[in-house]
Amino acid sequence: MNPKPTTLGALRREVEGGRVARRSVKTEIRDNLIVKLRSGEALFPGIIGYDDTVVPQVVNAVLSRHNFILLGLRGQAKTRVLRALTSLLDESMPVVPGCEIHDDPLAPLCAACRARVRKEGDDLPVAWLGRDARYVEKLATPDVTIADMIGDLDPIKAARANLELSDELTMHYGLIPRANRGIFAINELPDLAGKIQVGLFNILQEGDVQIKGYPVRLPLDLMVVFSANPEDYTARGKIITPLKDRIGSEIRTHYPVSRQHAMQITKQESWTARDSAGIEVILPEYVREVVEEVAFQARQDQKIDKRSGVSQRLPISLLENVVSNAERRALASGEHVAVPRITDIYAAIPAITGKFELEYEGELKGADTVARDLIRSAVSTIHDGWFPDVDFRQVTEWFDIGGSLQIDDALSSAELISRTSQVQGLHEAARSGGIGKKPSEPVLASAIDFVLEGLYAHRKISRSTEGQFQAAEQSKPRAPRSVDPLTERDLPLGNKKKYYN
Asked: Rounded to whole angstroms, what are the CA distances from 193 to 189, 240, 243, 286?
């Protein structure tokens, strides 16, 4: 591989000889995308579930050399897709050293770089800028000013250099000029004030900016991309119509369509490989499925605001909390293996309640109650798939004739197995769920807990928390409830002890 040219003269010879390409940013991204498409290389590694929907539309926008916007609810990997565009840039690009706007040494824009070229000629040093440094991202907020985005005059710079304010050398460049010859991304575009959005017109249509009304024209070379939540237009602002008209492509994102795709995303993003405590974590597949199904249930629950969405961060945070609860139990009981149980999902409710907005009906029930209902529905759905042909009559009959079982979520695996050994057919049913004939104690304990929670979710047995609740099927009177006199809601009681009967 030939060394990169280090002077302007050497760079000019490389360009004239065709060994270094000189092209616009959008053409560069398009050319590199074409190479990847021909080779069959993965375009956006780590972006799961968009292969047949979002990715083809992004490819079309890039091939068309469009500026584009991603519209979607929170937690749909919009920012991740935008940042992945850097993989389509060249590995490095020649720039004038020290230039704030990454000037092309062969065609500098700013006055300072033009002066350097005139003074130093072919001896002007050339620096090479990596692809990651060519991506500039701004989170739009209402307090962003036009000076932040485009630039302003710097009176201090003018005074120090004894220059007129109208001199180009007094300019302080904003974020957009500093993204010259790269990708500029604006997240949450509706939050940007309308007058600032107007300032983007020339950049999108003409490819230039003007600073403070002075006749200084900077024909920038940029790809501009945006992200926005369409449901926020009326809540916090909107994208003004003339700006939308200048954006080449509008691409809609979405939540994972299948549970398998969602599980892949959660597995990729969550921190479950715990090793610092010296405890091995074995994560059952059914626990992963239930965690993911909680998010799917939430997205279709009438008590949860659909316009706000349920982020993919919910199952990610939930799974991490589930593993942490299993880890805590293993540390307390002196076990060297932590196997999460369905019980741990109930213990991880704090990772659920902050991830959704409630409708009026949900507000009346309370976030904790809604979260418990979601978990119960998720367990019911997943339980059917793991035990499709298992007959649980022997287990339920044991409870029907008066059997009662107390389960504590802090119980060690050995103690849980011992307490449940009296329930006829329970251990056999747990072993039929794909855990093998001779599973370890932590794995068997988790499977037993799954069977019990599944039967409870299907209302075949009842469960009370701290002795306060009983299933409606029971004819005996309910235990006293602790009730808030103002809201008539049950007070939080925790979920440590469970009684099955």
From this structure: 9, 10, 12, 47
Q: Which long-range contacts (CB under 8 A, 24 or more apart) does 20-27 make?
A: 20/94, 21/90, 22/104, 22/106, 24/221, 25/89, 25/181, 25/182, 25/183, 25/221, 25/222, 25/223, 26/62, 26/65, 26/223, 27/65
Phi first, then psi, for residue 41 (nearest 5°) are: -70, 145
Which regions of 23-159 does DSSP assign to beta strands (E)? 68-71, 92-95, 127-130, 135-139, 151-153
Q: Amino acid identity, residue 348?
A: A
End-to-end CA gap in the chain: 74
- How far apart are alpha carbons 124 and 130 in whole angstroms? 20
Task: Report d(CA 89, CA 60) in Å as an integer.
Answer: 17
* Band (501; pLDDT cuts 50, 70, 90): low
Residue 80 and residue 22 share a domain: yes
User: Last residue of some domain: 210, 235, 252?
Assistant: 252
DSSP string, 237-264: ----HHHHHH-SEEEE----SSHHHHHH
Tell whether 183 and 284 lie within a shared domain: no
Q: Do both 207 and 317 map to the same domain?
A: no
- Pick from 432, 408, 430: nearest CA to 419: 408
Please give the Cα distance from 192 to 144 (Å, whole number): 7
H or E segment and range at residue 344: helix 342-347
Q: 189 by DSSP, 3-state: which?
A: helix
Q: What is the DSSP string of 136-172?
A: EEEE--TT--HHHHTEEE-HHHHHHHT--TTSGGGEE
Query: H or E segment at 417?
Result: helix 413-420
pLDDT the model gives residue 498: 63
Domain span at residue 362 reads 259-500
Show the 3-state SS of 358-392. ECHHHHHHCHHHHHHHHHHHHHHHHHHHHCCCCCC
Q: Any residues with CB less than 8 A from the CB of 102 and at least 6 apart, and which? A: 93, 95, 96, 129, 134, 178, 180, 181, 182
For the segment 374-397, what is each residue's pLDDT rounded down to a tens digit?
999 999 999 989 998 888 999 888
Closest C-alpha to 496, from 455, 467, 462? 467
Residues in the chain: 501
What is the helix (H) or strand (E) element at residue 465, kind and residue range? strand 463-465
**Beta-strand pair 135-139/497-500:** unpaired
Q: Pick from 252, 285, 314: which residue ends a domain?
A: 252
pLDDT digits (tens, 9 = 90+) for 209-267: 777 666 677 889 999 999 998 875 444 568 888 999 999 999 999 999 999 999 999 99
Cβ atoms < 10 Å from Cβ of 343: 27
Q: Are 460 and 359 contained in the same domain?
A: yes
Within this chain, do residues 224 and 93 fall inside the same structural domain, yes or no? yes
pTM of the model: 0.85
- Say yes or no: 351 and 449 in one domain: yes
Indicate the DSSP class of residue 3: P
The answer as to whether 2 is a domain residue is: no
Task: Quickly tell me which residue has 């047949």 as its tokens.
Answer: 52
